[in-house]
Amino acid sequence: MTEKLKELTAFLLAPTKLKRTLFFLLADVFIISFSFYSAFYLRFGFTFPGKYEEMFWHWLLALLVAKLIFLALGGLYNINWRFVGLSEMLRLLGMGILTTLLVFAVNVLVIRSTFPGWDLPRGIIIIEATLSFFHIGILRIAKRVFIQSFKGGKVGKKTLIVGANYTGERLIKELVTSSDGNMIPIVIVDEDPMKIGTRIFGIRVMGGFDKLPEIIFNLKIESVLINLPRAPHQKINYLFDIIKPTGITDIKVVPRIDEMVDTTYAPTKIKKLDIEDLLSRQAVRIDSDKIESYIKDKVVMVTGAAGSIGSEIVRQLMNFDVARIIGFEIDETEIFDLERDLKDLKKPGQEIVFIVGDVREKNKLEAVFERYRPQVVFHAAAYKHVPLMESFPEEAIKTNVMGTFNLAETAAKWKCEKFINISTDKAVNPTSVMGASKRMAEMICTAFNKDSTSLVSVRFGNVLGSRGSVVPIFLDQIEKGGPIEVTHKEMKRYFMSVPEAVLLVLQAAAMGNGGEVFVLDMGEPVKIVDLAENLIFLNDLRPYYDIDIVFTGLRPGEKLFEELLTAEEGTVVTAHEKIFVARNEKGPDNHKIHKIIKKLSDSLENTEKLTGILKEHVPFYKDS
Asked: Using an 8 Å Cβ cutoff, are 374 and 408 in contact?
């Protein structure tokens, strides 16, 4: 019985929109009745004249109906009790004035002439309106006043908010009034002189950003929240560099506008600052209509479909109305996992076929093209680890060169409409077998380009979080207590998020006419040692103290800096601000490519001969 009573009590006390509406409705009925009755006592010297007793109840009923309707029209039964502010009070005032004017009009124009003696004294109407507004307003704002009055007892970190962004006022209000959050806003810091010195929900605004260390020290700040959802990553980087020396490791950010499904700010949207916030750029803007117009209702094949880039291509293709997606992948475990991941994301009628296969196997590719007739191919299957391919150059040749040759030749034979080869910055002035093999893959695509099949390549740098990339490796080393291994103090790399890279690949694919090598704008290169230090810091540890960084020296085939273009190439701008076309020198034609492939195929057992053939035919290739 006790358990049932507890359940009933919990049910009755649990807040719901219906209960809140009923509470305010009943409370307003009481307030309006009390205010109307009190108005007579105040108007007639604390007595209630007998002549008004009969008409009192008729007028009260009319007032209740009118006022409750106007309050409902003003949205004052749909408010969030904790967040009541000036806008709600102004709406209440507006509804009160409208109701009072209506009562005055009815009283003078209708009642006085139609029902003599039943009209109300003007003082009664004014007193009742004043009392009602005051008490209804007090009730609406009571919870917020109560919470703010006792917020000093709230447990949490003293938080500095960067950015007096009025579009995020709901977020600041929530932090101020939240009873269960772990951040207590103490001060807001902004650069705008018009905002400095003002207050937002009682929190003072100070400035500018260069004074952050001083403010953090003076106010004993424990946590920082960056509330700049429209700021580019350069601004976030700038703030991070200012905050880092203060020792504050609890740095959180409001996600960028483009990262949010909706733009409603709330503490649940706040996330811990991570490396992508420092390295990623402004949102990629793509022409979705153009992409969909060329890919809609088509059969699309993706090789390397379970890899970092390939799997993201598959996911992005699911957003467009393609007729069928063919995922071609050699790793059966990865493709099994991907198939499970995508099962719940498929749209009704959407078909995804997964095939375990190797681009080295020409017969398997022939069978796939004969059965499914793909009209668009995204070729992401490749070996990418530079030092490993230096040790096994024949494997790089078999997959990156001969695999691309097999796929391009098969696509051309079956008159595939478009072929998009995923390339890399390591194909530029290559110093590794891997880079040279990818440059050769670009040359193959150019050679096979013809009217029936358009082949293009898309070249970009490192992608954040891809398998085997530097960020997951560093995070693993941090988790194990270090040290982080960096090959050289001066090593730099371009970085781009996987979704950004894939969206630009799709855009380039829609733009390509055939034969182009597209180059993606990768922004500014990042020093790997800076990346390592920031990752340590973002994990609440101190570089060189909690986690050491050691320098191991360049590995075979590595360069200190990867270019996206050779000096001889240059670029041609396109309609998209982040996509360029390399001015490639005229490469070997289809006939010569066949000869090169034959020479490579005959030399697979001879490493020295293989690299010699690459040096002969790949521009600017030399050993590191």
From this structure: no
